[in-house]
Write a structure and sequence with these properties.
CATH architecture of the largest domain: 3-Layer(aba) Sandwich
Number of domains: 2
Bound molecules: pyridoxal-5'-phosphate
Oligomer: single chain
Strand content: 5-15%
CATH superfamily of the largest domain: Type I PLP-dependent aspartate aminotransferase-like (Major domain)
Radius of gyration: 21 Å
Largest sheet: 7 strands, mixed
CATH class of the largest domain: Alpha Beta
CATH topology of the largest domain: Aspartate Aminotransferase, domain 2
Number of helices: 14
Shape: globular
Length: 385
């Protein structure tokens, strides 16, 4: 089936699927075979082997992920961090300089500052909403730019259009972590990004039962990343491919519910007497709201907020809430609540967190698929404590 002309809901289900159904199977079976018969391949990368990311389970996901963002190519990886670390190590060399958004997922920030910098990779943090800052930080050896569509955990939305244009004007590889937005709410290649990265552990899979990642983008860059991935060994197991494939088919339905539910919950929190501040790009007073409206097809399912009573109020609230499960991670069917300072951003030093604006009492909520009224009633009870 030619799926390129179809809308995203149809592409999620039909894009990339085998042209001929295997033994008529409506769902792609799991090819749990580490190796496949040699058929005369002349290149190492073409040998059929799970680590080469080329079993039927990988190939179908690659086609589907590329189709979702209207990109040339895609690659699944064993985790979001495998996608991010492999991409940076494949596309840049020691001595190269990268402009990096000043508030990112803690693992990414820690990888860049603690792992890449000692190897001789150079970077500078930038304010993604301030073009003057990008210009001031750009150097003769600047080769790339790295941002998040909606940042973790402060939910900032930078000047994503301007950043891609800036990268193109200066010959930089533009990379964006699109995990929080998902291809339903934002498709980076359509805005000029060369590489879009995902933790598929989150919304793409959607069921909190696997860890996986994806790189989506230009075919020549994907070839380099695949080559590095084969060496670093971050390939996804076929069984996890199968679960990701199954989860992805409902992405659009889930995201639309989560977009609506999170907006309603963010509005409820913003009006609540016990709440000091709410970060959600769908709220009119969010600093990136106008950009979010222009760029995104939905504001996503993530909210972060602070309570008036500081850390003790936060801890009381998290103990009293009964529907949200206190756990790191996000993007599943169940609502999760966490304190980024002790989970997703615990790898950053207290000074780095403070500089980035991630307070110890900040609460991050991943809104699931429960009934919105049940969630607001439960949050209300927890806030009254
Ligand atoms: N990117 C973002 C925005 C994340 O929130 C995370 C994990 O929380 C990652 C990347 C890393 O993904 P993974 O845990 O699948 O390696």
């Amino acid at each position: 089936m030619e799926t390129i002309k179809h809308r995203i809901d149809t592409r999620l289900i039909h894009a990339g699927e085998p042209k001929t159904r295997i033994h008529g199977a409506v769902n792609l079976p799991i090819f749990q075979s580490s190796t496949f018969e040699y058929t005369g391949q002349s290149s190492y990368d073409d040998l059929k082997y799970i680590r080469m990311n080329n079993t039927p389970n990988h190939v179908v996901l690659h086609g589907k992920l590329a189709a979702l963002e209207n990109a040339e190519a895609a690659l699944v990886t064993s985790s979001g961090m495998a996608a991010i670390s492999t991409t940076l190590m494949a596309l840049f060399s020691p001595g190269d300089h990268i402009l990096v958004q000043n508030c990112l997922y803690g693992g990414t920030q820690d990888f860049i500052t603690s792992d890449l910098a000692p190897l001789g990779f150079e970077f500078d943090f930038i304010d993604a909403a301030d073009p003057k800052d990008w210009d001031a930080k750009r150097k003769s050896n600047t080769r790339g730019l790295y941002v998040e569509t909606i940042t973790n955990p402060l939910l900032q939305v930078g000047d994503l259009k301007g950043l891609a244009e800036f990268a193109a004007a200066h010959g930089l590889i533009a990379m964006i972590d699109n995990t929080f937005a998902t291809p339903v709410n934002f498709r980076p290649p359509e805005w000029g990004y060369d590489i879009s990265l995902h933790s598929c552990t989150k919304y793409l899979n959607g069921h909190s039962d696997i860890v996986a990642g994806a790189v989506i983008g230009k075919a020549d860059l994907l070839d380099k990343i695949n080559h590095k991935l084969v060496h670093l060994g971050g390939s996804l197991d076929p069984h996890a491919c199968f679960l990701l494939h199954r989860g992805m088919k409902t992405l659009a339905v889930r995201m639309r519910h989560q977009n609506c539910s999170a907006l309603a919950i963010a509005e409820f929190l913003a009006d609540h007497a016990a709440v000091e501040r709410v970060n959600y790009p769908g709220l009119a007073d969010h600093p990136g709201h106008d950009r979010a409206r222009q760029l995104l097809e939905g504001f996503g399912g993530m909210i972060s907020f602070e309570l008036k009573g500081g850390l003790s109020a936060t801890e009381r609230f998290m103990q009293r809430a009964t529907i949200p499960i206190v756990a790191p991670s996000l993007g599943g069917v169940e609502t999760l609540v966490t304190r980024p300072a002790v989970t997703s951003h615990a790898g950053m030093s207290p000074a780095q967190r403070q500089e980035a604006g991630i307070g110890d009492a900040l609460i991050r909520l991943s809104v699931g698929l429960e009934d919105t009224n049940d969630l607001t009633e439960d949050l209300d009870n927890a806030l009254m404590g």
